[in-house]
Design brief:
Distance between the termini: 26 Å
Number of strands: 9
Helix content: under 10%
Shape: globular
Strand order of the largest sheet: 3-4-5-6
Largest sheet: 4 strands, antiparallel
């Protein structure tokens, strides 16, 4: 959400009408570029384009987010892909525009 000081908006979906209801607004990295959920929908990853940072959030049972950490991943990151690959550890692949590199991060999801 670039209009509200770089935040992530969380919504609940009405199962009958299909409408959205705002659940929470969470501050995140400057100029969020990409959002990605892990395959089990337990973690959200947000790339901040302006400062080249990746923020990791735990998705709570009520749909709200709890920030776990933030790390520098390179200049002007463009996208993130998270995959479990059937392994206990998740992997996040991050593309950086300026350096042309692909970074690979590994986390246990805890």
């Amino acid at each position: 959400n670039r209009c509200h000081d770089s935040s992530v908006a969380c919504f609940e979906v009405d199962p009958v009408a299909g409408g959205l209801k705002l659940n929470c607004m969470v501050p995140t990295e400057a100029q969020p570029r990409e959002l990605e959920l892990d395959p089990e929908d337990k973690f959200l990853f947000v790339l901040g384009y302006k400062l080249g940072r990746l923020a990791t959030y735990r998705v709570l049972n009520d749909g709200k987010l709890r920030k776990l950490n933030s790390r520098h991943v390179g200049s002007r990151p463009m996208w993130v892909l998270v995959t479990g690959l059937g392994l206990p550890a998740r992997r996040a692949f991050i593309s950086s525009f300026r350096s042309g590199c692909l970074g690979v991060g590994r986390g246990r999801g805890d």
